From TrEMBL:
This is Phosphoheptose isomerase. It comes from Saltatorellus ferox. Its EC number is 5.3.1.28. InterPro entries: GmhA/DiaA, Phosphoheptose_Isoase, SIS_dom, SIS_dom_sf, SIS_GmhA/DiaA_subfam. Keywords: Carbohydrate metabolism, Cytoplasm, Isomerase, Metal-binding, Zinc. Its cofactor is Zn(2+). One of its GO terms (biological process) is D-glycero-D-manno-heptose 7-phosphate biosynthetic process. Its main location: cytoplasm.
């Protein structure tokens, strides 16, 4: 077993001041993005509407679906597992799915093109009364746009978590939440995951208040 003393021999003695400055600047940018989001009351209202849509679907026998590309797919998977597993405390499992199965995605991409990977999944799994959550830091991902369009055709409510002004999806989804201030995907996704977590918490507080009893 390697001791802590042995590990310390491989650690740099000092962190260059330039690196510390860059790290501090990154945290400050992240804080400025969150402050900008919180500074607009309509963003908080939109998160409340998002939670209400999720609660409405779950209490009426519907399910939640989520999709995105790259890091946004990771956020979609994170969103889904919080419902089927445990968020704050034990409670019954709730139906949520992320479109992230490699075999299905690559099959659809191979047969119909990558732009169709999420729309085909919506067609396969979606039903009226469900909610589709699409994440795109640009608002211009063709496969996410087509997924929203397919969902609307099927009578499925759509929520878009976006950045960089919202792009085409901003006016297409039933509810759009656009991260302000940030110009890079990482800062935008940091707000997206906060929105997802806080919406889940709001639904849990309503449906499972004992999990939040003091």
């Amino acid at each position: 077993m390697t001791s802590s003393t042995d590990l310390s021999a491989h650690m740099p003695a000092d962190v260059p001041s330039g690196s510390l400055a860059a790290i501090r600047a990154s945290f400050q940018t992240a804080r400025a993005t969150l402050d900008a989001f919180l500074g607009d009351e309509s963003n908080l209202e939109a998160v409340g509407q998002f939670a209400a849509l999720c609660e409405g679907a779950l209490t009426s026998g519907g399910k939640l679906m989520a999709c995105g590309n790259g890091g946004s797919m990771c956020d979609a998977m994170h969103f889904a597992e919080e419902w089927t597993g445990r968020f704050r405390g034990n409670r019954s499992a709730l139906p949520a799915i992320a479109f992230s199965d490699p075999s299905q995605l690559t099959c659809i991409a191979n047969d119909f093109g990558y732009d169709q990977v999420f729309a085909r999944s919506v067609e396969a799994y979606g039903r009226p009364g469900d909610v589709l959550v699409c994440m795109s830091t640009s608002g211009g991902s063709p496969n996410a746009i087509l997924a929203v369009q397919k969902a609307k055709e099927m009578g499925i409510k759509t929520v878009a978590l976006l950045g960089k002004g919202g792009g085409q999806m901003k006016d297409l989804a039933d509810l759009s939440i656009v991260v302000p201030h940030a110009t890079t995907s990482d800062r935008i996704q940091e707000i997206h995951i906060k929105v997802l977590h806080i919406a889940i918490e709001a639904v849990e507080r309503s449906l499972f208040p004992d999990n939040y009893a003091s």
